[in-house]
Design goal:
alpha+beta; Uridine Diphospho-n-acetylenolpyruvylglucosamine Reductase, domain 3; 3 domains; FAD-oxidored/transferase_4; FAD-bd_oxidored_4_C; FAD-binding oxidoreductase; oxidoreductase; Oxid_FAD_bind_N
């Protein structure tokens, strides 16, 4: 990082938005889990798409690598620099446009936190389709870059289904504005979809047009307990296709025991495994939910919430899991997709792998069972056990027909395992796309490829 580049960046964004302070950079170079750390030489915080583009051009000309940072909630070291990079933060891109209640859409900056989009939609009598536990911190630009899913995927789909248009600053310093006011626009390549899930390797998303939905008039929520994971999976198959399904979440009873002990949030049902189900629609779906539950092999009676307060108490069981995980130090996280038929076998084998490599560790499984998207968190796993345990778990996922990355992205943590889910031809095609947009390979160089 030369003094000349620092001055150039200050001239683009203003001196107050560029820093080389080692203490500031040190805090920006560690990932959300606290497990992975990198190196950077400067932090720059542009305030417009044109400033982002100018920063990229300046760094390109200076031969400096750039790592993009949004809310820094990546769980796969996706925002950790490895090459004494310039950190480009989107945190100042926070404009929220007026909600279009007729077309049900809103334009927002990439640095807007998810919770702010949700509040804007709610204030307009609408709802945004993606929800995450990290809603107060995760930014919509980063969520689009990883094609995040979350708690409502079974109803509304992943982040990609919510994106109607994008502004993207490209590695060559140009800006693409890909927007359309019509509902059907098939003119040329679907460029917006190319950047969704690209993890910032092809360009920097600076703004998004997002789809919104009508707010359901009625909701009903339930938690059911199961003695057997296969029985829960069978129930999940039924519920995911049920008209009005709004959420379908697997909870490991080990997680509920921890939330009860440390947070005072206990699961209100029996069973080794728990399933949170929510239906939503324009009329009361309580009877439909009850009929569906009757056909499942549950333990004891389900807990059902019809009013808002009761629903929030049930949701607290699921959302407290994310909070309790950090009490044991940085957990080792695995985000995977599996065929539903393989989940029981995977859970048993994963427990055995954890016991073999880290006997004192606690494996906790939860996630979005409707899509087979599971989050395995290994608590009390020391750094010395991580390399072999991680490699063994990736192999196990592949052996069970799974995908090594579901909604968290590849980042730098999983780049060595991409070949477990993609063929050599797939990877070569992705590299060709990367080379076409970023021939110098300076943008997010640690992400996706080695």
């Amino acid at each position: 990082m030369t003094e000349t580049l620092t001055e150039t960046l200050a001239g683009i964004v203003g001196a107050g938005y560029v820093t080389t302070d080692p203490d500031v950079l040190d805090g920006r170079c560690v990932d959300h889990t606290g497990r992975y750390r990198g190196r950077a030489t400067a932090l720059v915080r542009p305030g417009t798409a044109d400033e982002v583009a100018a920063v990229l051009q300046a760094c390109h000309e200076a031969g400096a690598c750039v790592t993009i940072q949004g809310g820094r909630t990546s769980l796969v070291a996706g925002t950790v620099p490895e090459n004494d990079d310039v950190l480009l933060s989107t945190e100042r891109l926070t404009e929220i446009g007026v909600v279009d209640t007729v077309e049900r859409r809103v334009s927002v900056g990439a640095g807007v936190p998810l919770a702010a989009v949700q509040r804007a939609a709610t204030d307009a009598g609408l709802v945004f389709g993606v929800d995450l536990a990290a809603r107060e911190t995760a930014t919509v630009g980063g969520m689009a870059s990883t094609n995040a899913g979350g708690l409502r995927t079974v109803r509304y789909g992943n982040m990609g289904e919510q994106v109607l248009g994008l502004d993207i600053a490209l590695p060559d310093g140009s800006v693409v504005h890909r927007h359309s006011q019509v509902r059907r626009d098939n003119t040329g390549y679907d460029l917006a979809s190319l950047f969704v899930g690209a993890e910032g390797t092809l360009g920097v998303i600076t703004a998004l047009d997002l789809r919104l939905y009508p707010t359901p008039g009625h909701r009903v929520t339930a938690i059911c307990g199961f003695a057997d994971l296969d029985a829960l999976v069978d129930a999940g198959r039924v519920f995911r296709d049920l008209d009005g399904i709004a959420a379908l979440e697997l909870i490991d009873a080990r997680a509920s025991a921890l939330t009860a002990e440390h947070l005072g949030v206990a699961a209100p049902v029996e069973g080794t495994w728990q399933l949170l189900i929510e239906l939503a629609g324009e009329h009361d779906l309580t009877e439909r939910l009850a009929e569906a539950i009757e056909g499942t092999e549950i333990c004891g009676e389900p807990a059902v919430g019809v009013d808002t307060a009761a629903q929030q108490r049930l949701w607290q069981v699921r959302e407290s899991v994310a909070e309790v995980l950090g009490l044991f130090g940085p957990p080792l996280k695995f985000d995977v997709s599996l065929p539903l038929s393989a989940i029981q076998r995977f859970a048993e084998a994963a427990g055995a792998i954890v016991a073999a490599h880290a006997p004192a560790a606690i494996p906790v499984l939860f996630g979005h069972i409707g899509e087979g998207n599971l989050h395995l968190n290994v608590l009390r796993c020391g750094a010395e056990a991580e390399p072999e345990l991680y490699a063994a778990m990736m192999t196990l996922i592949a052996e069970h027909g799974g995908n090594v990355s579901s909604e968290h992205g590849v980042g730098s943590r999983k780049r060595d395992y991409v070949s477990m889910s993609r063929t050599d031809a797939d990877i070569a095609a992705m590299r060709a796309v990367k080379a076409a947009f970023d021939p110098a390979g300076y943008l997010n160089p640690a992400v996706l490829f080695r």
